Amino acid sequence: MNKTSKRVLSTVMTGLLAVSLAACGSTNNGNKESKGAAADPSSPAAETSVASPTSKDKVTITFQNIYPDPTDPKYKMLRKVVSQYEAEHTNVKVELDSLNTDQQKLKFKTQAASKEMPDITIVNPAAQMQPFVDADLFAPLNEMVEQNGLKGTFTEGILDYYTFNGNLYALPDGNNIALIYYNKSLFEKAGAKVPTTFEEMIDAVKTLKAKGITPIAIGEKDSWTGSFLFMNVLLRTNGGPGFLKDVVDGKRTFEDPAFTQAVDAFQSLVQAGAFQEGATSFDYNAGENLFKTGKAAMYFMGSWATGGIETSDVSKDGNVGVFKFPTVGGKGDPNQFMLAPGSAFAVSKSSKHLAETLDFLNYFMVNYPKEMFEQKGAIGLAQTVEGDFKAAGYSDMAMEVMNMFKDVKGGDLAFDNTMNPGTAQVHLSSIQNLFVAKKDSAAVAKEHQKGYEENKQ
Questions:
Q1: β-strand 320-323 against 344-347: which pairing, if any?
Q2: Which of 175, 253, 347, 442 would disulfide-bridge 382, Cβ 3.0–4.6 Å?
Q3: Domain 31-174+342-388 sits in which CATH superfamily?
Q4: For 155, left (φ over 0), alpha (ψ -120 to 50), or beta?
């Protein structure tokens, strides 16, 4: 990438979102409209005042977030932006509540039920966000994003995943694809080959395992991680995107061969010893740190992990490479990815300091891409990023990840961003159980189908 490549992610990510929106269709499982309509500032629900706060009374804003790992560029970015804001607004204190993803989800559900929510919290797109919107918990952000051109900083189409009935309720931190990071020195030590097919991945797992090397790191205590990997297998066995949409549309069931084949393939990884011992006791950060400290040969994750990996010791001297998730049984296209519109920041409608909270969130989102660029964490953001990545010292690995975005030919969203929460929980628990004991794929399929039929609306 040369020095003329300003706004380098804009074209790439616009194309990605255009493809993903076309490929995925509606993701709200038949609930109220959640995407496809731009936020309308004239909508009655969008009249939340965002006038600059004038009071100099002492104010504390609570900011719940999912950046607890000090090695993550987002951890450093968050604290820098907060410090800057507090220095410029001496009457405001921003109190951080930093949790891992599953901890935050559980805590926020409890807070939402009691209507004792933080001023700013983290939500996930589409189906995961729907129940909280239906409960009228969030302040519309339409007017805020229209001020000072903030809306124009987001890649085209990304805000649709957080828009319900014409109102925008959250601002995303990323727009990512899933890929596999690998440790070149560990592959060389074991004599393993970088796989181009799923069958070759199983062979690589066995080769690495035989040399006493953990093949794949995962943080399956946070059950979405195994689901994210499983769904990439399903994307392949299905021959492309749209399996869950077909289920919702009544065209197929979970007992379809594409699903049972995905279960069998996924279990073949587990049974080959692909993951570290006690994988379900490692949370997301602990699992990722196995890879970042050179204790695992591969790591399947969204491209948001790039910044933390490239600033870790494991990436010294170009030691980390990346590859696309391979075909499974000859099926699927590696250029169809698991697509991940990011977690997002929502504001409590009942905030006692709504004007100050909106002012801070606006400041945070304006500065977010600039600070993430400086922290080497600007791959896969939901906002346009100014700057020459290569000149700024981004690694060859990071540039390779960025170039993968240009290859995207559609894909699927995560299970829990597509199905309603009840069905999603059945799925998450079912897949997590496969890390503990092997199960007949037909039984797993029936378990999913029963969960779907009991929870569909």
A1: unpaired
A2: 175
A3: Periplasmic binding protein-like II (3.40.190.10)
A4: beta
Residues 280 and 272: their CA atoms lie apart, in Å, by 17
User: Which neighbouring-strand residues pair with 163?
Assistant: 168
* Residue indicated by tokens 């170039």: 403
| Phi and psi torsions of 348, nearest 5° | -65, 130
Q: Which residues contact 25 (CB under 8 A, 6 or more apart)?
A: 242, 245
Can you give the pTM of this predicted structure? 0.86
Closest of 265, 223, 217, 258 to residue 237, by C-alpha: 258
Query: In CATH, what class is 176-339+412-455?
Result: alpha beta
Residues 6+ apart with CB under 8 A from 306: 377, 379, 380, 397, 398, 401
Q: Do the beta carbons of residue 123 and residue 129 sit within 8 Å?
A: yes
Q: Cα–chain-centroid distance for residue 256?
A: 27
Q: Where in the chain is the domain with CATH 3.40.190.10?
A: 31-174+342-388, 176-339+412-455
